[in-house]
Design a protein that fits this description.
The complex is a heterodimer of chains A (about 650) and B (about 350). Chain A has about 650 residues and is an alpha+beta fold. Chain A has 13 helices and 36 strands. In chain A, strands 29-30-32-31-33-34-35-36 form an eight-stranded mixed beta sheet, sandwiched between helices. A six-stranded antiparallel beta barrel of chain A has the order 1-4-5-8-7-6. In chain B, the strands form five sheets. Chain B has a six-stranded antiparallel barrel. Chain B has a six-stranded antiparallel barrel with strand order 7-8-9-14-11-10. In chain B, a hairpin with a 5-residue loop joins strand 4 and strand 5. The N terminus of chain B is likely disordered. The chains are: A alpha+beta (about 650), B alpha+beta (about 350).
């Protein structure tokens, strides 16, 4: 009857309106249906600030996942590391909650309260979930009696590398940890902040209330619940490879580097391999591979199929939570530096044996010639460095050397690269070059050069005794903002350059005030220019800097890892985390700082950070000094450090 | 199946209601509401303060209710009101009630016949999940003869902003509608939210940050909270409420008054652990023990020593002080009487 009447007056409007009213009722009913599973969480104590974020004191929300008191919530709600967590049940009862474990991939935290008879959330069947369906975000922060409601639609599935449902309902600290439910009152997921650009608990908070909100599917939560209940955190699973090309648009998943000792290395993967299938799913692009792996936890196994040329490789990899930093082994010798063109016999002649080193223990002496390492022939210092770098400290191998025409085989147990600079190190003498009237003779002494392709210039100092048949070390000096320090550097370094066969290259920043990241190319070109004109020893090219040029210097070092073997930095902490150590790109660090410098603690932290990544790093404190370039004693030390960059 | 039948039932009920009480469609709601919302231009422009706002007509003669804000903090001659159709009027401030964040303006013109919200017949109430439309001149997007902007969303909750002390710095302490549409923007204060069928629900408040979770909140003050004051201001028999005595932190009592010695307050949020108890003190007699963690003072969660001190400071002689403490993994409740200090 009533339908007919409405139909007579305005059929279309009436139908719209009926639908709108029915939907509105359904929103409320859905919230009411889930209500018993939605709890309020409050915290006491804890940090007021985490990074740049002021932490809230809540209340926040959680979802009941088992009748015997397990509650899942967003890890964001506990970033303040509260002293105590309280859970208010919808019926008004209050309990102390314990943190059981966290899922550090999906940013969830499991709590437990000591009570029975709770109503666990009823999960929606993900097979029936489609983009465009209603999704209702609930929180229990405003009102104890009824959840707060925000309504939107499902905007996407499998977001953030396969982990999350996206919704345009308003998601914020008001409902993080609360359920996202469908219009039937079944729980689609648990609301969390997530981001493609970060992996911390707070990543994605900047999108609060923006219409970009995320929920971890309830079905996935139930799948991993038993593992969380054991009290162990779930962590993202790592493979141990880097792929060629960066960014989300990168093409086929081609292995660029395989981390030494990682699960991928153990599975026999090699650079150049192309993944075609992971966990039974085809992967044509890197993004597809990340979608598959994004859902995997450490400890889980994935199968893979890869192509190596025409060959197909199959295998299984057990993912890990931490990739152990690679540490290169150390033999304990400095190689002699033979002149070019001399008819050198194969092998590496020893220039210096480090005290208490594996080489010393094996009885090696100056002028011995190392000809074999393990089962590999040693042709020159480069091959020996490469062989030793790929073996870890404490590993055993054998070594063959020649002394007075007789060869001898010894057992060697490699050590770690020492984090000290030798107190004394005799320079390798370079005989003066034969007199020549050649017009094209490369410039020596101090001179300035302008790079054709660039607006700016560099200055350099080449030893007067430069001999093109001997390869020289190259120090690239990056001056601090506002001062090229040209006179001071010449004064301190001229004699060292002559004595130790070192060329000083000093590119000038386009704006004297400081370096900009875009000048990396110019510095690289200046180095190439010098390397074209002079005989440079690739194993002794390093960056030297002081003060605020440090940030640019470290970025440069890691950008062109193939170019630099070390960084000697004064009063310059690392501003970003260093890349992982790799035997392919040996890199050594020497840090100097005055203990009155306001950056002293930061520099100490940088040293510690480099050490955890297993880089060799020596650190020198200049007593009673603030931010000044160090005096001669410390400069001599930098020179010795640089002269030992080719240590093996 | 079970669910479908429920929806069908819902539709049947709604249809029935429609037939008896002719509600309007969303289209009609918007068409009918837009002419009742006005754009207000006044003071501002310094310190990045916006010089514009919104308001809604509550009488055919040109009475306008709006939010009390800096925009009105000027000589009344300076307030300009522009209607949806572009007509422009000077307006004067008839009265304001800062406790409600409310002001009423009157257009300086006679013989007007404007569309308006009838505060007797067109006001409704709503609960969490109710669909709403928001109307305001947020960000001054509407200029000249354009109507204001419309948003949609649902009521997220009906709650009191001051339910949790310290979360919001607003004088208004009544209930509000929190909405899931981003309604509270510069210039939106004084706009309205309506139900889908055109009932006036609330007046959009000023921009407000929730200091407890550091997010911006979108809220509206329910119109029934305002109607009486609006009528009084229009009829001329209005006296603003007196400012409540500042009770930010009266510091009437401190923990030691009850014999409580807390752990040293070293952090911003030091948990309120009991360090020791004064022998024979009320707290000791009530059974508190060292290392108890005080969680609630009279049902107010205390996050820190600081908050505990503030809560105790609000007590008055004759109150019952109820503390809930955590001892191990148990919650323990103790009560004690608050006695007048002079008697101690």
């Amino acid at each position: 009857m009533s339908l007919a009447i409405a139909g007579l007056s305005s059929p279309l409007h009436a139908a719209d309106e009926d639908l709108e009213s029915a939907e509105e009722r359904a929103f409320k009913q859905a919230a009411a249906l889930v209500d018993p599973s939605v709890v309020r969480i409050q915290t006491v104590g804890g940090l007021d600030r985490v990074g740049k974020i002021l932490t809230g004191t809540g209340p926040t929300t959680g979802v009941v996942v088992s009748s015997d008191g397990y509650i899942i919530s967003s890890s964001f709600n506990f970033i303040s590391k509260p002293a105590s967590i309280l859970v208010d049940l919808p019926d008004g009862r209050q309990f102390i909650a314990k943190v059981i474990a966290s899922d550090r991939s999906k940013m969830l935290t499991l709590l437990k309260v000591d009570v029975k008879g709770l109503t666990p959330a009823d999960p929606a069947d993900m097979k029936s979930v489609k983009v465009g369906q209603w999704s209702i975000a609930l929180g229990r922060t405003y009102d104890k009696t009824f959840p707060s409601i925000s309504v939107g639609i499902i905007g996407a599935l499998g977001r953030i590398w396969g982990k999350a449902i996206q919704t345009d309902a308003k998601v914020s600290p008001v409902n993080y940890g609360g359920p996202l439910v469908n219009i039937e009152g079944k729980v689609l997921g648990v609301l969390v902040p997530l981001s493609t650009r970060g992996a911390t608990e707070a990543a994605g908070v900047e999108w609060y209330d923006s219409g970009i909100g995320f929920a971890i599917p309830m079905q996935d939560i139930y799948t991993s619940l038993d593992r969380l209940k054991t009290g162990k955190d779930l962590k993202p699973g790592l493979l141990g490879v880097t792929l060629k090309g960066r960014g989300l648009l990168a093409g086929a998943p081609i292995v660029d580097r395989v981390r030494v000792g990682s699960p991928a290395a153990e599975a026999g993967l090699k650079p150049g391999d192309v993944f075609t299938e992971v966990d039974g799913k085809p992967v044509r692009r890197q993004a597809e591979m990340r979608h598959v792996l994004g859902r995997k936890y450490a400890g889980e196994k994935v199968t893979f199929v890869a192509k190596r040329g025409n060959e197909t490789i199959k295998g299984e990899i057990q993912l890990v939570d931490v990739l152990v930093a690679y540490e290169s082994g150390f033999l304990g010798v400095l190689p002699a530096r033979p002149a070019a063109g001399e008819n050198n016999p194969a092998g590496v002649q020893v220039r210096h044996v480090y005290e208490d080193s594996p080489a010393a223990a094996a009885g090696l002496k100056k002028r011995d010639r190392i000809v074999k390492f393990g089962d590999k022939d040693v042709t020159d210092a480069k091959t020996l460095t490469d062989l030793v770098s790929r073996i870890r400290p404490k590993q055993k191998t054998t070594l063959v050397y020649v002394r007075d025409g007789a060869s001898k085989t010894v057992d060697i147990t490699l050590a770690s690269l020492p984090n000290t600079v030798p107190g004394e190190l005799l320079p390798t003498a370079i005989p003066p070059a034969a007199e020549s009237d050649d017009e094209d003779k490369p410039k020596t002494g101090r001179f300035t050069e302008t790079m054709p392709a660039h607006e700016h210039s560099y200055w350099a100092y080449v030893p007067e005794g430069y001999n093109p048949s001997h390869r020289h070390g190259l120090m690239v000096w990056l001056h601090p903002g506002g001062d090229t320090m040209e006179a001071a550097m010449i004064k301190q370094w001229k004699a060292i350059c002559e004595q130790r066969g070192l060329i000083l290259l000093a590119p000038k920043a386009e704006k004297i005030a400081g370096w900009s990241d875009s000048e990396a190319e110019f510095v690289k070109d200046a180095i190439e220019d010098i390397k074209k004109k002079y005989a440079i020893d690739d194993s002794r090219v390093f960056l030297h800097t002081f003060g605020d040029a440090g940030n640019f210097t470290f970025k440069l070092a890691f950008k062109y890892r193939e170019l630099f073997r070390g960084v000697a930095a004064v009063s310059a902490p690392l501003r970003t985390a260093p890349q992982e150590n790799s035997p392919e790109f040996r890199m050594q660090f020497h840090m100097v700082c005055g203990d009155k410098d306001s950056l002293y603690r930061n520099v100490q932290q940088s040293v510690a950070g480099l050490k955890t990544r297993k880089y060799p790093v020596s650190f020198t404190t200049v007593k009673g000094r603030d931010r000044k370039y160090p005096p001669a004693v410390q400069v001599q030390e930098i020179a010795r450090w640089a002269d030992a960059l080719d240590r093996i | 199946m079970k669910f479908i039948s429920r929806v069908t039932a819902a539709i049947a009920i709604v249809t029935f209601t429609t037939a008896t009480l002719p509600a309007q469609s969303t289209d009609k709601t918007i068409t009918a509401t837009l002419p009742k919302i006005v754009k207000i231009f006044g003071a501002g422009g310094v310190k990045n303060l916006h010089a514009y706002g919104s308001g809604f007509l509550v009488s055919p003669e040109g009475h306008i209710a709006t939010v009390w804000s800096h925009v009105l903090d000027t000589n009344s001659d300076d307030v300009t009101v522009v209607l949806a159709d572009g007509r422009r009027f000077e307006a004067q401030i008839l009265g304001a009630e800062p406790q409600l964040d409310l002001a009423v303006l009157k257009l300086n013109a006679e013989g007007l016949e404007l569309p308006y919200f009838d505060l007797d017949k067109q006001v409704g109430t709503a609960s969490a999940g109710t669909r709403i439309r928001g109307f305001s001149n947020m960000f001054k997007v509407a200029t000249g003869d354009e109507p204001v902007s419309v948003l949609h969303g649902v009521i997220a909750a009906k709650t009191k902003l001051t339910a949790r002390r310290g979360a919001f710095e607003v004088p208004y302490d009544g209930p509000v509608y929190v909405v899931d549409a981003i309604t509270n923007n510069p210039g939106a204060g004084g706009g309205v939210i309506t139900s889908r069928d055109g009932k006036l629900l609330g007046m959009i408040g000023k921009e407000l940050r929730n200091s407890k979770n550091n997010t911006w909140i979108n809220y509206a003050i329910p119109v029934p909270e305002l109607t009486e004051t609006i009528r009084q201001i229009i009829s001329g028999d209005f006296t603003p409420r007196e400012n409540k005595p500042g009770d930010d932190n009266p510091n009437r009592y401190n923990p030691l008054d009850f014999g409580l010695v807390l752990v040293p307050d070293v952090l911003f949020r030091t948990p309120a652990y009991v360090d020791t108890l004064v022998l024979g003190s009320p707290a000791a007699k009530a059974g508190l023990k060292p290392e108890d963690l005080v969680l609630f003072v009279n049902d107010e969660l205390v996050h820190s020593c600081r908050m505990l001190k503030s809560e105790l400071g609000h007590l008055e002689a004759g109150d019952t002080l109820r503390l809930i403490v955590r001892r191990g993994s148990k919650l323990v409740t103790v009560e004690m009487q608050v006695v007048g200090k002079e008697k101690q």
